[in-house]
C-alpha cells in the first residue's frame, strides 16, 4: 500500500525501524490508517448527471476531506489551485461519473465458486478481501451485501484495512425452515441426528439463519440489528440455487414478515428486503411491509404497480441467471437449479421492462462473482436505454441505501466517490464493461485507488 506524503510523493509504509528506534518513535496500533485527505480539484471533465440523463461541461470540482465541497465554472476555482498540497487534475476530454453501486452482492462468496473442499477460514477471509479489491478496481465504490457480511466487514473497508467498496451490510439472511436459506439436504431434514437450532442451517451459518414463527423472527431481527445491520434480508420465495425448494413457492407468512419489517424500522434500519422470485411471495412481502424485492423475476404488472405506489424498490440480478443458464456456473449447479434458472431468466426481461414502464425504482444487482459484475450493464442495455441502466447503478441505488444526494451523484455535499472515463456512459452504458479501455481512474472517499490519468497519483494500491 502506498500513500502520499505532504509533498505529493509516494512513500512506502514503514515496515522496518532501526534498533534502537528514534527517541520520538511511537508504535501505531492501526498502521493501515491513512493520513488526512489532500484537497483535490478536478478540472475540465464533462460531468455525468445520471439523474437527469445529461452531461455538464465547463465545471471544476473541488474535493476536501473525502467530500465534493464545490462545483463551479472553471475560472472561479482558480484561487484554490495554489492551495497547499492540493492535487489539481487536468481531466480535459474525460467524463466524471459517480462511482458505481451494486445493490446485491455476497462478498463472502469471494472469487470463483465452491469446490469440493471447503476453504479454511483464513483462505475464505483473504478470498473476500481479494474480491473486494476486484470490485473497487472495476469501479464499484459501494456495494450492498445481502447475505452474510457484517459490521466487521463494513469497518474493514471503511478503515482501509482492506481496500474495497463502501459496504452496506445485513448479516445472515433470514429464512424459514426449508426456505431459500436452509442449506440442509432434503434427506437430512427429518433425521433425528440432524443438528437443529437457531443458527444451524447445513453448515452455511455465516450466510443465512433460520427463524420460524413471529417470536423467533422478532428475536432474530433484533439480533441482526444489534449486530449492526444496515438492512435485513428475508426469503419470501424459493430460489434458484437452493436445491430443494420450488422457485414459485411463497415462504414466510405475512405476520412473520411484518414482525421483521416493523423491528427493522423501529430500530433505525433502512429497510427489510426480500429475496423473492414469485408473485405470491412478493405480494406477501409487500403486505408485510418490505422496502425492496431482490431478483423479482416473475412479478406481475399488478404487483409492480403496488410496488410503485408504495415506493418499494426492485433489484434484478440477470447476470447470475445467465451465468447458470449459459455461463461458467452451469457445471456447478444441479439439474433442478438449472431448470429453475431457465424459468426465472425467461421472465426477467419482461418483468424489468414492465417495472421501467410502471416507474418502479430499480437498482443494479448481480448476485455473482466480481469478475462478471460489470456484465449486468450489457445484459440490461440489450433491452433498456443506456440512460435508464446507468441510473440503476447510481442515483436509483442510492435511494435503496437511503443515501440520496450522498452517493450515486456528482453534487456538492456528496461523498467523493467517482470514476474518470474516456467515453460517455449515458450514450452507451456498455463502456462500463470495458474497464480495460475506458476506466481511467477510480476514486473512493476522496482517495485514488486506480489511475492512468496524468497528475492523479494512486494513493492506495489495490494489487
Ligand atoms: Zn443473492
UniProtKB/TrEMBL annotation:
GO molecular function annotation: hydrolase activity, acting on carbon-nitrogen (but not peptide) bonds
InterPro entries given in the database record: Amidohydro-rel, Metal-dep_hydrolase_composite, Metal_Hydrolase, Metallo-dep_Hydrolase, OTAase-like
CDD domains noted in UniProt: Met_dep_hydrolase_A
Keyword Hydrolase attributed: yes
This protein's UniProt keywords: Hydrolase
SUPFAM superfamilies: Composite domain of metallo-dependent hydrolases (SSF51338), Metallo-dependent hydrolases (SSF51556)
Domain of life: Eukaryota
PANTHER family: ALPHA-D-RIBOSE 1-METHYLPHOSPHONATE 5-TRIPHOSPHATE DIPHOSPHATASE
Coiled-coil intervals: none
Record keyword Transmembrane present: no
Protein name: Amidohydrolase
Amino acid at each position: 500500500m502506498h500513500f502520499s506524503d505532504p509533498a505529493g510523493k509516494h512513500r512506502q509504509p514503514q515496515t522496518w525501524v532501526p534498533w534502537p528506534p528514534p527517541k520520538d518513535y511511537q508504535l501505531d496500533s492501526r498502521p493501515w490508517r491513512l493520513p488526512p485527505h489532500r484537497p483535490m480539484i478536478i478540472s475540465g471533465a464533462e460531468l455525468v448527471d445520471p439523474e437527469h440523463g445529461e452531461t455538464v461541461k465547463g465545471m471544476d470540482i473541488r474535493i476536501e476531506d473525502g467530500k465534493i465541497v464545490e462545483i463551479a465554472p472553471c475560472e472561479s476555482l482558480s484561487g484554490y489551485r495554489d492551495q497547499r498540497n492540493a492535487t489539481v487534475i487536468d481531466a480535459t476530454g474525460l467524463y466524471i461519473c459517480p462511482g458505481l453501486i451494486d445493490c446485491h452482492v455476497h462478498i463472502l462468496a469471494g472469487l470463483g465458486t465452491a469446490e469440493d473442499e471447503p476453504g479454511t477460514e483464513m483462505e475464505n477471509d483473504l478470498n473476500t478481501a481479494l474480491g473486494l479489491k476486484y470490485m473497487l478496481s472495476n469501479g464499484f465504490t459501494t456495494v450492498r451485501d445481502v447475505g452474510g457480511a457484517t459490521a466487521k466487514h463494513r469497518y474493514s473497508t471503511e478503515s482501509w484495512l482492506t481496500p474495497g467498496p463502501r459496504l452496506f451490510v445485513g448479516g445472515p439472511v433470514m429464512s424459514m425452515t426449508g426456505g431459500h436459506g436452509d442449506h440442509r439436504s432434503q434427506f437430512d431434514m427429518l433425521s433425528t441426528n440432524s443438528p437443529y437450532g437457531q443458527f444451524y442451517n447445513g453448515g452455511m451459518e455465516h450466510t443465512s439463519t433460520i427463524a420460524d414463527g413471529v417470536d423467533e423472527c422478532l428475536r432474530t431481527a433484533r439480533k441482526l440489528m444489534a449486530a449492526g445491520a444496515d438492512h435485513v434480508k428475508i426469503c419470501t420465495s424459493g430460489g434458484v440455487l437452493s436445491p430443494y425448494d420450488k422457485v414459485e413457492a411463497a415462504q414466510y407468512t405475512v405476520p412473520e414478515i411484518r414482525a421483521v419489517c416493523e423491528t427493522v424500522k423501529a430500530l433505525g434500519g433502512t429497510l427489510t428486503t426480500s429475496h423473492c422470485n414469485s408473485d405470491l411471495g412478493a405480494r406477501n412481502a409487500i403486505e408485510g411491509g418490505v422496502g425492496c424485492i431482490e431478483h423479482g423475476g416473475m412479478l406481475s404488472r399488478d404487483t409492480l404497480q403496488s410496488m410503485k405506489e408504495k415506493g418499494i424498490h426492485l433489484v434484478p440480478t440477470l447476470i447470475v441467471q445467465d451465468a447458470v443458464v449459459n455461463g461458467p456456473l452451469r457445471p456447478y449447479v444441479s439439474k433442478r437449479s438449472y431448470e429453475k434458472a431457465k424459468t426465472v431468466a425467461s421472465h426477467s426481461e419482461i418483468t424489468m421492462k414492465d417495472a421501467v414502464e410502471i416507474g418502479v425504482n430499480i437498482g443494479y444487482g448481480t448476485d455473482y462473482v466480481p469478475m462478471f459484475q460489470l456484465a449486468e450493464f450489457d445484459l440490461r442495455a440489450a433491452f433498456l436505454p443506456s440512460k435508464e441502466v446507468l441510473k440503476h447503478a447510481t442515483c436509483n441505488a442510492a435511494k435503496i441505501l437511503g443515501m440520496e444526494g450522498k452517493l450515486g451523484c456528482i453534487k456538492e455535499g456528496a461523498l467523493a466517490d467517482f470514476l474518470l472515463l474516456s467515453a460517455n456512459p449515458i450514450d452507451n452504458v456498455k463502456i462500463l464493461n470495458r474497464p480495460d479501455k475506458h476506466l481511467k481512474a477510480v476514486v473512493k472517499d476522496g482517495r485514488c485507488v486506480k489511475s492512468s490519468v496524468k497528475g492523479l497519483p494512486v494513493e492506495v494500491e489495490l494489487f
